[in-house]
Specification:
alpha/beta; Spore Coat Polysaccharide Biosynthesis Protein SpsA, Chain A; nine-stranded mixed sheet; two-stranded antiparallel sheet; 22% strand
Length: 329
C-alpha cells in the first residue's frame, strides 16, 4: 500500500494540467500522483498519455462531478492518506510534508488543509478555503481570511494552527480509513460544499480537522465552473440547504431552517436588483429541488455535532455590522 496518494480530479482542464502538473510532480517525490479524469473531451487524456506516461491515470466513463468522481477514483486507490488536489493549484516546495507529518502525529485528527492563497494575487487568501473553513449558526460557510467575497491580505495573521469546521476540497488531506468509514462524499451534492458535508460527518464520528499553515498552495479558483455561472449559484444554494438539513441537530433545525430560507430569498431578490435574473432564478430553482428531495435528504441524517457551527450569523456580522475580516468576529 502506498502511504500517500495525491489525487487530481480533472474535467476539461488540459490547460491547468499543462501549467501545474509538472510542479506537483517535481515537488511531491514522496507520494504517488494520480490523475482521475471525469470523461473530459478537451484532449486531456491524450495529453496525459503523451506527456506523462508514468502518471497513473484513472479514466471515468462519465462526468460524475467532484463528489462522484472522487468516490469512484478513490475506490481504486490503496493508500494510507488521500490528498485531494484541484487541477488549478500550484504547490510550493515541500508542501506535502507538513500536512502528512501532522496526520502522522495526531491520531484524533482525520483531515487537514494547507494555507490556500490566490494564485493571481499571491499575498492574498483564496476564496475556496483560505486558512480554514467555518460554519455560522444558519449553516453559511466562511473562512479564516475570506468572508463572502472579501479576501484578506495574508500578513501572517492566521499562521497559528487551529481546529476548523471544514477543510477545502481544493486541497484536503484525509485518512483513507476515515473517508471509507463515512462512505465518502454524498454524490447528490455533485459539486460544491460536498467537502463541508464530508467534514461535518467526519466530526460527527468523533474526529477533528485542522489547518496546517506551514504548508502553502496557490489556487486559481473557478477552474471548472466560473463564479458568474448560474449553475454554480444553483449548486451552492441547493447544497447549502441540504447541508444543514442533513447535519444540523434536530432542535436547531426546526427554527434555523425557516430563517435560512428567508435569508436565501433575500439573496435572490438582491441578485434580481443587481441585474442578475438568472442567478435569482437559480436560487428559486435550488429551493424547489430541496423541497422535492426533502424527505430523501432527511433520511441521510446521522448523529449531529452542534459544536461544528458558530453561535452567530455571518450574514448579520458582515452585512449589518460591517465586520469583513475573520479577526473582527
Amino acid at each position: 500500500m502506498t502511504k500517500v496518494a495525491v489525487v487530481i480530479l480533472n474535467y476539461n482542464g488540459k490547460g491547468y494540467l499543462e501549467q501545474f502538473l509538472p510542479s506537483v510532480i517535481d515537488n511531491t517525490p514522496e507520494a504517488e500522483v494520480v490523475v482521475a479524469d471525469n470523461a473530459s473531451n478537451d484532449g486531456s487524456i491524450e495529453f496525459l498519455k503523451e506527456n506523462f506516461p508514468k502518471i497513473r491515470l484513472i479514466q471515468l466513463t462519465e462526468n460524475l462531478g467532484f463528489a462522484g468522481g472522487y468516490n469512484q477514483a478513490l475506490s481504486q486507490i490503496q493508500a494510507e492518506y488521500f490528498v485531494l488536489l484541484n487541477s488549478d493549484v500550484q504547490v510550493s516546495e515541500s508542501w506535502l510534508n507538513p500536512i502528512i507529518q501532522f496526520l502522522d502525529n495526531n491520531e484524533t485528527y482525520a483531515a487537514c488543509q494547507p494555507k490556500i492563497l490566490d494564485f493571481n494575487k499571491k499575498d492574498h487568501f483564496e476564496y475556496a478555503g483560505a486558512a480554514g473553513g467555518f460554519i455560522d449558526v444558519f449553516g453559511y460557510p466562511f473562512c479564516r481570511g475570506r468572508i463572502f467575497n472579501t479576501l484578506e491580505e495574508d500578513k501572517g495573521q492566521y499562521d497559528d494552527s487551529i481546529d476548523i469546521s471544514w477543510g477545502s476540497g481544493a486541497c484536503l488531506a484525509i485518512r483513507s480509513k476515515t473517508f471509507l468509514m463515512v462512505e465518502g462524499f454524498d454524490t447528490d451534492f455533485f459539486a460544491h460544499m460536498e467537502e463541508i458535508d464530508l467534514c461535518w460527518r467526519i466530526q460527527n464520528s468523533g474526529y477533528k480537522i485542522k489547518n496546517v499553515p506551514n504548508s502553502v498552495i496557490y489556487h486559481v479558483g473557478g477552474g471548472t465552473l466560473s463564479k458568474s455561472s448560474p449553475f454554480k449559484t444553483y449548486l451552492n444554494f441547493r447544497n447549502g440547504m441540504n447541508l444543514i438539513i442533513k447535519n444540523l441537530p434536530s432542535g436547531g433545525l426546526v427554527w434555523k431552517l425557516p430563517i435560512r430560507i428567508l435569508l436565501d430569498w433575500i439573496a435572490a431578490f438582491k441578485f434580481l436588483l443587481d441585474g442578475g435574473p438568472k442567478h435569482c432564478f437559480a436560487v428559486l430553482k435550488a429551493h424547489g429541488k430541496v423541497l422535492f428531495t426533502f424527505f430523501q435528504t432527511i433520511k441521510k441524517r446521522t448523529g449531529s455535532n452542534s459544536s461544528i457551527t458558530k453561535s452567530y450569523s455571518i450574514v448579520f456580522r458582515y452585512f449589518v455590522k460591517k465586520e469583513n475580516r475573520f479577526v473582527d468576529l
